[in-house]
Write a structure and sequence with these properties.
Mean pLDDT: 94
Low-confidence stretches: none
Number of strands: 17
Number of helices: 11
Order of helices and strands: HEHEEHEHEEEEEEEHHHHEEEEHEHHE
Largest sheet: 8 strands, antiparallel
Strand order of the largest sheet: 1-9-6-11-5-4-2-3
Shape: globular
CATH architecture of the largest domain: Sandwich
Radius of gyration: 25 Å
Distance between the termini: 27 Å
Bound molecules: succinic acid, cobalt (II) ion
């Protein structure tokens, strides 16, 4: 398959980007996507904001006491005729799920592991529209899709005390910009977590945010413990056959705490559990949505014939794929479900997880192994893969 051109400044390798910028400092990438053509129009974005099941928000900047107002969709169509000519932004989450061109755009970010990708969000603003100066806890690439936007950025530390009080948004009341850039269509700005940023539309503007996920440590620990509780823990209860008479029955004794410490210290953390749990959680869909099984399930032979005829097989955006190579096995995770496969299927599993678009000729040597065909066919019948002609 043709390698995707990296959306990085000319001459910058992925290695240099990772070593010098990723999670470290902002980077402006002029013409990251030269002649970028927005796959979504402002009207389509307004339409999506009215749809049930699509996460949308409207941020309105007003004069007066409540300077910033947040409302959540789905919105009534009439709202768009009532909005002012300037100073608002409409945001739609997870647009890559609905627009194949945007899902394909994610392939250009392959220099970062797939599991770290969260979603593509789009924002639409008329002139002077903004979401206010703020800080995000994740890495983001801000791709200008239409019009121009001015971004002011500061790497200074922001604290909760700097936030505007009594509003539903985490907007800073003040910050001093260290750098200022004007982005045009196709330009992109990379921001690591924790950097203050403020983007203001200089004219009607669309921005696509490719956001990365970095789970909170507390959430990771809770999730792992929940997994262990279900999979591993013995049904035993707290025991104290060595209990001795206490002077104060109201006291929790050091001996009781010691028994509890022993239980906590016995939490089993082994590499297999860690791999199974992590692969499952990072491939689960954020909103809990799952694909439907294919209503036209195919036999293995019919599937191979169809793949050869259609030439291209796609991964469904609702299903996240990831794999872990082990000494004698390949762990494949699809939409939160683990399948343990033989090492013989390694090349097929890597190909499945690395890319979204699968070309029949590229798969031809791998389809000599019957287990690979059976796997592809099963994933197709389960709805995780589709042919272009299946749609509509
Ligand atoms: C925007 O698209 O203007 C806001 C995106 C962000 O700051 O995270
Ligand atoms: Co932001």
């Amino acid at each position: 398959m043709k390698p995707f051109p990296l959306p990085l400044p000319q001459g910058m390798s992925a290695e240099t980007f990772l070593a010098e910028y990723w999670q470290k400092k902002p980077l402006l990438i002029k013409a990251a996507f030269p002649s970028f053509n927005t796959p979504l129009s402002p009207d389509e974005i307004a339409g999506m904001a009215c749809e049930e099941g699509i996460e949308s928000r409207l941020i309105l900047e007003r004069d007066g006491d409540t300077k910033w107002q947040l409302s959540h969709g789905p919105f009534d169509e009439s709202i768009f005729s009532e909005l002012p000519q300037s100073h608002w932004t409409l945001l739609i989450q997870e647009v890559h799920k609905y627009v194949p061109e945007l899902a394909q755009l994610l392939e250009s970010f392959r220099f970062i592991p797939n599991w770290r990708i969260d979603d593509i969000m789009v924002s639409y603003s008329p002139v002077d529209g903004s979401v206010g100066p703020h800080v995000d806890q994740y890495d983001v690439f801000l791709l200008q899709g239409l019009g121009r936007k001015r971004w002011q950025v500061s790497t200074a530390e922001a604290s909760d005390g700097d936030l505007i009080p009594d509003i539903d948004l985490q907007i800073l009341s003040y910050f001093e910009a260290e750098q200022c850039w004007e982005l045009e269509e196709g330009d992109m700005l990379y921001l690591p977590p924790g950097v203050i940023h403020h983007g203001v539309a200089l004219e009607e503007s669309l921005t696509y945010s490719v956001g990365f996920r970095a789970p909170a440590e507390g959430d990771l620990i809770t999730s792992f413990i929940d997994y262990l509780a279900e999979e591993r823990f013995s049904p035993e209860h707290y025991q104290d056959p060595d209990l001795t008479l206490q002077q104060h029955p109201g006291e929790i004794s050091a001996a009781s705490l010691q028994r509890v410490r022993e239980i906590i210290n016995s939490i089993p953390v082994n590499d297999d559990d860690l791999a199974c749990w992590f692969g499952q959680v990072v491939t689960e869909s954020k909103s809990g949505e799952r694909v439907e099984p294919n209503s036209k399930a195919l036999s293995v032979d019919a599937f191979v014939k169809r793949f050869q005829q259609e030439d291209t097989l796609f991964r469904c955006e609702l299903s996240r794929f990831a794999c872990i190579e082990q000494e004698n096995a390949m762990l494949l995770f699809v939409a939160g479900t683990l399948t343990t496969l033989s090492s013989e299927m390694k090349a097929a599993v890597y190909l499945l997880c690395d890319q979204r678009m699968h070309i029949a000729t590229e798969w031809a040597p791998l389809l000599e192994i019957p287990d690979n065909i059976a796997l592809l066919c099963r994933l197709y019948n389960e709805g995780h893969l589709y042919f272009d002609n299946d749609q509509g």
